[in-house]
């Protein structure tokens, strides 16, 4: 009976296509400006990049009335891997070496960033510590200074003859006779960023100078994020632990560390990709020296185009970078998800 | 019954006691306070050291580098010189600043304007092609903008109208910067818009507002903090942008602050006095640093909203 009644209700007239698609049309209207602009200034160049990577595009093809570049197939991709012909122009070119260094660079930095960031966040979270606000304000300073300034200033700090880093070392090493005296200033002459010098633990000294600078630059933001995470840990957990008689270090490793891990891992992944693509330090400070060993993929990509005008090879290089970054983010997404579900 | 009550009472007292302790703040033992203060001061020293050194050099009368403290009397001569003639190129500090400002403000404004409209569509509508276009934006986001320099250069260089070459102009650099900023703006703003409750819009619709009215009168005002943070990020990006301008621009009249700074410290600029270099670095860093510092709290929350919701 009831069923009959329902079926007896006359069906609402099906809305016309024009009415039904109204939301879709509105959506397209909102998205259109961005898509149009991106199509012209991002997607078209990316498509053009793919085309360029299969040609010998160079200076000769740049002018607006120039002939089209010659099709060379996969030559650029192969040259990048084995270094043929590129080494005539850039003797130190080494794709696999740069990629390996780049991965190690990002990994080593992120480890320091996260560990120091968390430790200092914990330090500033200690109950009863004086001047917390002042310290928090001071510690954020490296984040607010533009990267290009940081890189150029630190380059001067690591200068061989006049850099304040060597002067500082001279101040400590002078009294034990390991520094020399220049104009009354005791100074050590370590060529941190210069061309030819020895290695320390398989890596050029310039790497350590860059690492030092980037640790200085990177931990404060990690500390901010860790502070946020620390303050969101419910206080009851610590209260319960105190009641149960857990010591300070037990509380740190059994409550703080696991709770922080959830917040810090996604940020560490973000930091890894940012550091992987960190242009300014490598480009301005070490300039890739010695022998291109502190070159990153981004700086190498820039130099291929800017200094050497190898547009075709530069395009193929960028395509490689794209796939490398895609792989990295797929792997890191999996790691993030895996650790999230484990908790 | 009685036992239960006592147990509950004991528990309540304990947690109240602890809460009270927490509220007062357990005073640290003096040697612990001393140790932690020493640690904090050491960290503050490492953070401030390079900054203080730059300030000290910029007001030093000595032309050579001497160490930490400024040598001789304090002077602002270096600032004066930089403001008069920052580089060997015939361009003044004001012109450099104006060029940087045009790039930064223009690219930041364009990316936020286009980004928020697209972000609204992605956040609120289901439409054919939605996931494909959004994935494309995410894919572009992954590639650092340096990597698109070859095709952008080649493509814009072919656009020549009379004397005007798109590549060799602030317009071209501005477009290149915008192409780097737009995917980030769209993604970050979508993350924020996702956190705005839909009820607000539904209430607006019941009151008879159409989509555009909702967007302009409800969504835009509510997302002001996120818009401001995204715009600020874009502005800082444009203000210190280096590689596109360095690669694209050849006319000194178009040069930017970042280009001048790199010219002063580059390997062909050994003759640049350190005091002037330091003064210039401070003049470039100061405005954005102050803004950043003032808006720090909003920046962190504006970013994490987008990051968490992705």
Question: How would the blueprint of this fold be written?
Answer:
The complex is a heterodimer of chains A (343) and B (310).
Chain A (H helix, E strand, L loop, with lengths): L1 H7 L8 H4 L1 H32 L21 H8 L3 H4 L5 H30 L7 H8 L1 H4 L2 H11 L6 H10 L6 E3 L2 E3 L11 E2 L2 E2 H27 L3 H9 L4 H29 L2 H8 L10 H10 L4 H32 L1
Chain B lengths: L1 H23 L5 H29 L18 H8 L8 H32 L5 H13 L6 H9 L2 E2 L2 E2 L4 H24 L4 H9 L4 H12 L1 H16 L3 H6 L8 H9 L8 H21 L1 H14 L1
Helix pairs in contact in B: 2-13, 3-13, 4-7, 4-10, 5-7, 7-10, 7-14, 8-9, 10-14, 12-13
Give me the oligomer status: heterodimer
**Beta-strand percentage range of chain A:** under 5%
Which structural class do the helices and strands of chain B define?
mainly alpha
The largest pleated sheet of chain A is described as:
2 strands, antiparallel
What strand order characterises the main sheet of chain B? 1-2
**Major β-sheet strand ordering of chain A:** 1-2
Rounded mean pLDDT score of chain A? 83
- Percentage of β-strand residues of chain B: under 5%
Terminus-to-terminus distance of chain A: 53 Å
**Overall pLDDT confidence of chain B:** 79
- DSSP strand count of chain B: 2
The main β sheet of chain B shows up as: 2 strands, antiparallel
Low-confidence stretches of chain B: 1-24, 306-310
Basic shape of chain A: flat
Low-confidence stretches of chain A: none
Q: Return the string of H and E elements of chain A.
A: HHHHHHHHHHEEEEHHHHHH
What gross morphology of chain B would you assign?
flat
Supply the number of helical segments of chain A: 16
Helix amount of chain A: 55-70%
Name the chain pair whose interface involves the most residues.
A-B, 95 and 101 residues
Number of helices of chain B: 14
């Amino acid at each position: 009976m009831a069923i009959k009644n329902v079926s007896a209700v006359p069906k609402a007239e099906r809305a016309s296509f024009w009415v039904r698609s109204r939301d879709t049309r509105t959506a397209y209207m909102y998205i259109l400006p961005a898509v149009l602009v991106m199509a012209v200034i991002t997607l078209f160049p990316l498509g053009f990049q793919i085309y360029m990577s299969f040609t010998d595009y160079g200076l000769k093809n740049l002018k607006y009335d120039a002939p089209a570049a010659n099709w060379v197939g996969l030559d650029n991709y192969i040259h990048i891997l084995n270094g043929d012909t590129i080494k005539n122009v850039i003797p130190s070119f080494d794709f696999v070496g740069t990629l390996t260094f780049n991965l190690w660079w990002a990994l080593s930095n992120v480890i320091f960033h996260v560990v120091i960031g968390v430790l200092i966040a914990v330090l500033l979270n200690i109950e009863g510590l004086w001047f917390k606000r002042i310290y928090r304000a001071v510690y954020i300073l490296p984040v607010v200074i533009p990267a290009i300034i940081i890189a150029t200033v630190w380059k001067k700090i690591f200068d061989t003859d006049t850099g304040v880093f060597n002067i500082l070392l001279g101040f400590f090493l002078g009294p034990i006779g390991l520094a020399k005296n220049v104009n009354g200033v005791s100074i050590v002459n370590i060529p941190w960023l210069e061309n030819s010098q020895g290695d320390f633990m398989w890596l050029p000294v310039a790497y350590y100078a860059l690492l030092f600078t980037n640790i200085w630059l990177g931990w404060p933001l990690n500390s901010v994020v860790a502070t946020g995470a620390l303050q969101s840990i419910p206080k009851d957990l610590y209260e319960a632990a105190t009641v149960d008689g857990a010591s300070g270090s037990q509380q740190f490793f059994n409550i703080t560390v696991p709770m922080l891990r959830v917040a810090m891992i996604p940020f560490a992944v973000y930091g890894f990709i940012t550091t992987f693509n960190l242009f300014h330090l490598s480009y301005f400070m070490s300039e890739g020296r010695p022998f291109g060993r502190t070159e990153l993929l981004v700086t190498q990509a820039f130099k291929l185009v800017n200094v050497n005008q190898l547009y075709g090879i530069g395009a193929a290089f960028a395509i490689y970078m794209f796939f490398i970054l895609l792989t990295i983010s797929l792997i890191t997404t999996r790691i993030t998800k895996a650790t999230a579900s484990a908790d | 019954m009685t036992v239960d009550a006592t147990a509950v009472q004991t528990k309540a007292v304990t947690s109240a006691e602890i809460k009270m302790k927490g509220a007062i703040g357990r005073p640290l033992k003096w040697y612990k306070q001393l140790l932690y203060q020493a640690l904090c001061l050491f960290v503050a020293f490492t953070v401030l050291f390079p900054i203080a050194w730059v300030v000290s050099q910029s007001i030093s009368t000595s032309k050579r580098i001497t160490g930490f403290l400024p040598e001789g009397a304090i002077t602002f001569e270096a600032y004066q010189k930089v403001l008069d003639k920052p580089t060997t190129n015939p361009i003044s500090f004001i012109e450099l600043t104006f060029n940087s400002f045009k790039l930064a403000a223009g690219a930041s404004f364009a990316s936020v304007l286009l980004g928020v409209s697209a972000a609204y569509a992605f956040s609120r509508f289901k439409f054919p092609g939605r996931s494909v276009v959004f994935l494309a934006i995410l894919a572009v986001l992954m590639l650092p903008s340096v990597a698109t320099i070859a095709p952008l250069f080649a493509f814009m260089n072919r656009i020549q109208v009379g004397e005007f070459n798109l590549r060799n102009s602030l317009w071209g650099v501005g477009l290149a910067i915008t192409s780097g900023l737009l995917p980030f703006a769209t993604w970050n703003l979508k993350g924020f818009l996702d956190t705005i409750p839909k009820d607000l819009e539904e209430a607006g619709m019941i009151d008879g507002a159409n989509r555009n009215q909702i967007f302009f009168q409800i969504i835009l005002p509510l997302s002001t903090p996120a818009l401001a943070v995204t715009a600020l990020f874009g502005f800082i990006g444009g203000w210190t942008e280096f590689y596109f301008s360095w690669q694209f621009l050849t006319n000194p009249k178009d040069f930017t602050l970042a280009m001048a700074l790199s010219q002063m410290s580059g390997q062909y600029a050994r003759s640049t006095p350190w005091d002037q270099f330091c003064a210039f670095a401070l003049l470039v860093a100061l405005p954005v640093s102050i803004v950043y510092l003032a808006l720090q709290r909003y920046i962190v929350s504006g970013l994490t909203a987008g990051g968490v919701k992705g």
